[in-house]
Amino acid sequence: YDNDEADSGTNFWQELASVDTTGDNHTTGTFTAKKYLMVDVNVVTTGGAVSQRLTFNDDTGSNYAQRRSGDGASDSPGASKSSIDGLNDDLVTNSVGFTRYFIINKSAQEKLVIAEAISGEVAGAGNAPTRDECVFKWANTSAQITKIDLDNNKAGDWASGSFIKVYGAD
Fold it and tell me: Distance (Å, rounded) from C-alpha 62 to C-alpha 57?
């Protein structure tokens, strides 16, 4: 909650970036800085498994830390990382995965993120979807997030229907 938000009748979330994407390297491009971000990533796979390696503002230094769980398993922590291991990692070919990130994006604070993901994996009602949960931070206290990159380091590609959408609010 931020009581500085004016009651102007507009939606709290304003779209900052919307990118339809295919291939291996995916970027939002530069968008307007906001205190709060919500990011939706939809991945359609082709040609093999895909992954999502997330970075902010082109920072690939050891400035990320995460705690992740797949399908309710024990947490897997990681510190001093050069990127965030994406949710829906190893998403199989001809599958769809969806991830939603909520980010506190205040300039003078580390950026805290909570994310939830689901993937259909193998088609059909006889195959349950998978879920990933992750919390992480970007230990930057001098800038707000204004660009998000998701890179694939697996054999497959993001196919038509894949997108990244960023929404923000102050």
Answer: 14
